[in-house]
Here is the input.
Amino acid sequence: MIAKLTDDERIAALTELAGWTYDPQRDAISRRFTFADFSAAFGFMTRVALAADKIDHHPEWSNVWNRVDILLTTHDCAGLSKRDLKLARAIDALAP
Here is the structure.
């Protein structure tokens, strides 16, 4: 079973994950990434997709031209989990 983060774990994680915003309505974190153009944004999404598939945890996301909006939450526990933090760190490592 996947455990939901405690309040203390969530607070600690948010101080570590620069640029990510907490959404209390969904118990999720989100971040917007902006690129030079569509090609760069799509390339980033491809790299994130491969990383997400490796850890078997997939983002909710959207792309409009040079922007990629990503929201992370774990549906199995109805909120944030360590899986979301792991994926957020992987995404940050792929960001320019």
Remarks:
- Strands lie at 21-23, 28-34, 60-64, 67-72.
- The longest strand covers residues 28-34.
- Residues 38-54 form the longest helix (17 residues).
- DSSP finds three helices and four strands in the chain.
